[in-house]
Amino acid sequence: MVRIHVPDQCITIEQIWIENVLFTKSIISIIFILQINPEGENMKRLIVRSVVLVFFLAGMIISLSGLSPVPENLAGGENSMSAGSNNSTEVATLGGGCFWCVEAVYERIDGVQSVVSGYAGGQKANPTYEEVCAGTTGHAEVVQIHFDPEVISYEEILDLFWKAHDPTTLNRQGADVGTQYRSIILYNSEAQAQAAERSKAKAAAYFDDPMVTEIVSLSAFYEAEKYHQDYYENNPYAGYCTFVIRPKLQKLGLDS
Question: CATH number, domain at 86?
Answer without folding.
Answer: 3.30.1060.10
